[in-house]
Write a structure and sequence with these properties.
Strand 9 and strand 10 form a beta hairpin. This protein is of the alpha/beta class. Helices cover about 30% and strands about 30% of the residues. It is globular, with a radius of gyration of 17 Å. The N and C termini lie far apart (about 35 Å). The protein has six helices and ten strands; from the N terminus they run βββαββαβαααβαβββ. The strands form two sheets. Strands 6-7-8-3-9-10 form a six-stranded mixed beta sheet, with helices on both faces. A four-stranded antiparallel beta sheet has the order 2-1-4-5, covered by helices on one side. The protein has a single domain, classed as 3-Layer(aba) Sandwich (Rossmann fold).
Length: about 240
Amino acid sequence: MKPDTVFRARGLSKIYVMGEVKVHALRKVDLDLHAHEMVVLLGASGSGKSTLVNILGGLDTATEGEVLYHGQDLTRADDRALTEFRRQHVGFVFQFYNLIPSLTARENVQIVTEIAREPMAPEEALDLVGLGRRMDHFPAQLSGGEQQRVAIARAIAKRPAVLLCDEPTGALDSQTGVVVLEALERVNRELGTTTVIITHNAAQGDIADRIVHLKDGEITGISTPDPKRQARDLTW
């Protein structure tokens, strides 16, 4: 395993059993993710993107195969160990922001900083995503894109090694989505956080170091954008 390998997945399969029906969400997936890189998982709905990210992030377990995080075997970890792994090493950003309406942006981020080992200040995290002047506003006073950037600030405030983003622009228009992607670029660049973005939008792959293509639970290819572009240059 290379020294900069953050995740090493081999033979990952996930089967959901629904009555007499078996759904193969992942089929024998092999994938390495490296330190500091930005990876886009690209595929249609049902291709296995979210299942793969949930297993990497310790939110779900594989039916077969193994996942190593810096050599630590997550496949055989118990619930307590997976909880500790998520708490200390992984930040999550979802399509819907999951902010607490009665708390300001600063207070929403503070929830994470109070339980992390070596957090950044909430103000620092909000500055990093361009919301330094909005930190005392409540979610209802923020646009959708601003709320998503608060969610990103909350995810990165514990200084995670890995940031896993499931359709982070899915609920946003393209102009607002670009601003959110710019925030993710800045986190990746300035904190060196390994960043994984799930999307079905092919245009967003251009900001990645690598694009992992999924279909029907399998990786059908891994490509490199040529040229790699900045989020501000994207249109969709």
